[in-house]
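Structure, all two chains, one model.
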Amino acid sequence: MAVTDYIRKRFFPHMWCPGCGHGTVMTSMIRAVENLGLAKNDIVVVSGIGCSARISGYLDFHTMHTLHGRALGFATGVKLSRPELTVLVPMGDGDSCAIGGNHFIHAARRNINLTAIIMNNNIYGMTGGQYSPLTGHEKMATTAPFGNIDPSFDVVKLAIAAGASFVARTTTYHVNPMVKILEKAITHKGFSVVEVMSQCPTQYGRRNKTPNAVDMLNHYKTDTTPIGSKEKEENPDLIERGIFLQEERPEYCAEYDKVIERASKGR
Amino acid sequence: MKKDVVFVQGNEACVRGALYAGVNFFAGYPITPSTEVAELLARRLPAKGGKFIQMEDEISSMCAIIGASLTGEKVMTATSGPGFSLKQEAIGFAVMAETPCVILNVQRGGPSTGLPTSVSQGDVMQARWGVHGDHSIIALTASSCQDIFSITVDAFNLAETYRTPVILLLDEVVAHTRESLMVPEAGDIDVVERLKTSVPEGTDYHPYLPREDGRLPMSDFGGIHRHNVTGLAHDMWGFPSSKPEIVYGLMHHLVDKIENNANEIARVKEFYVDDAECLLISYGSSARTARHVVEERRARGERLGLLELQTLWPFPAEIVRKKCASANRVLVVEMNMGQVLGEVKKAVDDPKAVFLANRIDGGFITPADVLNIIRITQGKGV
């Protein structure tokens, strides 16, 4: 099927700014679903609030556009109730790591079979450019007019430490690898985290010397490197991309099935 | 027919009622004095193939039950005081997204951490207005284990009928009082099942388009209709819309579906109401004290009566006005600073004849507390 077969045309045009990376993430999600041959009726997309969250309405799956930071709570209810459904949870950086940080680490700890896609544009875009936990030290934001003093989370390290069993990072420049990573994340049995660096020229780039989407994409090309590359040894400032962790571990819904089995035997 | 009689506390009666109604999913977080509900369902739900999850907080518990409800399950959560505050944002989502769910709030003393193990009825107004924005809500309560069982079934039924969150507003005393419960058999109480759409696959399904009777048939996530659910103002497809004509219709629908059915939703119990000169109005565990006073005074020939409210929201104003019409004074018995008192004053013809007998110190309201106020209203000294 074509990419357009997976979108709700009634909902278009979308509300993302020119140059925004989120459309690339959406297309990559669709391609991953298409490549895996998943049926539209078997997919639930649960998003929170923010620019990233609008993705759910555009996609022709069962979709839920919920509360800021709480997408994983809603998604946990859907998944535990219907483990056979594929549940994708696209979230923003503030959405997942600030207001939703608690839900993020606990969903990871449970290793519940959800695919968390963190569309990291380093900023609160919808509200007009305030700093997020992923904005970065010394970066500019409307609420950091003298430079941001907040250090950032490393989403990959956070996810691994919290117990996620599949953890990857990619960018909107690296579209084909992103599609492959998403396919693996979706098929992985456990909590999968895919951080996608997604450019926001409007609210982040303009204030941080990269007002142009093409320049931002070029930075994703030059400032990142595959995991364990020689370049990383030479230049430790490079951001690694690829699959950091992929491990078989007891999955929450499967574990709960054991509880049902024990309970039905009266033990 | 011999009925199964058990000796249980109110929280267990609630669990039994929920299971009778078909609850199949519970998410919660430990908090006194509602924790027993989670503990019991952690055992009972998996035994019948249902799901129980203890979430990381009150907020995600509320979110999880909404997610599960959208897959077609009957769902509930249980909390108290501070936890009820934390759930409000997601309760608002369930209001806006018209998602059936039951929220048990076993009231304790507040505000803030307040009196975790003491009784209160201080959340009546929070049940009504805890969610931001204009909306309507259903809130029910009960004063005995027997009533908790049946009102819990009612809560699930009303949640399904009106596609809305229903607040079950118990209090610490009624939730922890142990007394006998005659367990209804299957069929004794009607159970309302989820109304599912009959729209066939391939035909445009409108999740937010009411039928002629006002009800909105649902389609489960994972089913044949892929629709959008949002907390934003939305059209009949569930797509966000900020068009004034769409928002106007939505707001009226959300409020009218409940307020226009206030008499249908109203559940009250009457004790010697018809010839009462002094009518007591009470609910929850306070109603037990009120009833004691009424029966004791009746034995002495005094014409006291009790109107016990089981539906707090939508407030049964019409019923209250009618029942109060022939009494020469009305006494609201509650454990807060007059949250239902204000509603009664609004409802009756003569608000000056409405008085408050209350307690707000964490102690359970006693017959003496009520009698003191009755004597004052009679012009006698305490």
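The domain at 4-183 of chain B is CATH 3.40.50.970 (Rossmann fold).
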